Amino acid sequence: MSLQSENHDAPLDVEPIVSSDSAPSSPELSSTPSEGSIPTPGSPIVPISVADSFAFAFDIDGVLVRGGKPIPEAIEAMKVLNGGNEYNIQIPHIFLTNGGGKFEEERCRDLSEQLQRPIQPGQFICGHTPMREMASRYETVLIVGGEGEKCKQVAEGYGFKTVLTPGDIIRHDAATTPFRQLEVISSSSPSRDLTGVTVDAVFVFADSRDWGSDIQIMLDLAMSVGGRLGTRSETFTEGPPFYFSHNDVVWSAAHEHVRIGMGALRRMFEVTFEDLTHGTGKLRTHAFGKPQVSTFEFASRLMSQWRYDQHGLTEAPKTVYFVGDTPESDIRGTNAVDAKVDNEWFSILVKTGVYQDGTEPAYKPRATVNDVLEAVNLGIQREMRKKVASSLKEKVMDGEAELEENTMLPV
């Protein structure tokens, strides 16, 4: 018999952003000066305009950063987006990564230092950010992954009521994971009596630092009676739901070759559960992150709010350029969204991360470039060509209208 797994990864579609009907129509480039436009001594005072018809969204690892260090072209790309381009325009942009393990504010501080410019939480989404919308749904949750108890703190910050970690369970019963040394577990939380405690859901916030121990505890809960610690179901169909912040099997790190990530842990968990239950069990697993619909919906809402808060823009951008390094998540998700929404999502694949130059990507991007700077310049030039074409079309139409009017004049 085969595993009966309820895989609830969201379908690859997304509803379009609904703009306010009362919002005034805007020109191709807004003439509203940016507050960040500061002239230097002796330079002409030229206000920086804001591009209101298009925006950018960026993956981080393999696009802007690799192994904790900025990709050189990324720093220059940020300058271009901030107005350092021949058109003197600022371009709204957000960051959408499957990574996590820290508060969004902390990730923004790290990224600000790497990119040498301020990044705000209002323009940043990591893999577990959408999970905060689920905080009121469950009473007691197990949070897996990340360094020490950082993810536990993040979950509590999201509003989750009772948060446990694998370390809490091991402190309660050291025999749970016989090969894990207790002294390496953070002792910042006191030992708790977890007898009879029921875990309502499991959230994998970030990559595991101890795959063996974490998978063991996840399997115990998957085979439990309704998530109650220390119990074993007779049917293996009663376990709590498991939520993964993303499903990437590999990611781009400092090593010359890609490293395995949360998607690989999920697969190991599911296959081992099938083996242990002889194919009779039922597992409820769900994934957030790219390319899932819920993540792109969340990103669309955040982008809309960010553009309004920073620039007063009320209409959705006509084009969103998404720059990523992973065809299976970045490009797949962008193309799927583009096929469903009213505005355009334009996928750009860079060669600085997971994708290896010369290979055939499983999901085809609209454009492939060497690095993020080329991606930004490609998007800007494409928009400028569209603007010129639109202007010429208007002139032709105006000329035809004038000619028609003249031919109707009496002789």
Record the SSE blueprint:
Blueprint: E1 4-7, E2 29-30, E3 49-51, E4 54-58, E5 65-66, E6 69-70, H1 72-81, E7 89-90, E8 93-96, H2 104-115, E9 124-125, E10 140-144, H3 150-158, E11 162-164, H4 166-172, E12 201-204, H5 211-222, E13 242-244, E14 250-251, E15 259-260, H6 262-276, E16 282-287, H7 293-311, E17 319-324, H8 327-338, E18 344-350, E19 367-369, H9 372-407
Parallel strand pairs: 1-16, 3-7, 4-8, 4-17, 8-9, 10-11, 10-12, 12-13, 13-16, 17-18, 18-19
Antiparallel strand pairs: 2-3, 5-6, 14-15
Give an overview in words.
The protein is built from 9 helices and 19 strands. The chain has 411 residues and is α/β, with parallel strands linked by helices. The protein has 2 domains: 48-127 and 292-400, HAD superfamily/HAD-like (Rossmann fold, 3-Layer(aba) Sandwich); 131-287, Rossmann fold, CATH 3.40.50.1000. The strands form 5 sheets. A 6-stranded parallel sheet has the order 1-16-13-12-10-11, with helices on both faces. It has a 6-stranded parallel sheet with strand order 9-8-4-17-18-19, with helices on both faces. A hairpin with a 2-residue loop joins strand 5 and strand 6. Helix 1 (72-81) packs parallel to helix 9 (372-407) and helix 5 (211-222) crosses helix 6. Residues 1-5 and 10-46 have low confidence and may be disordered.
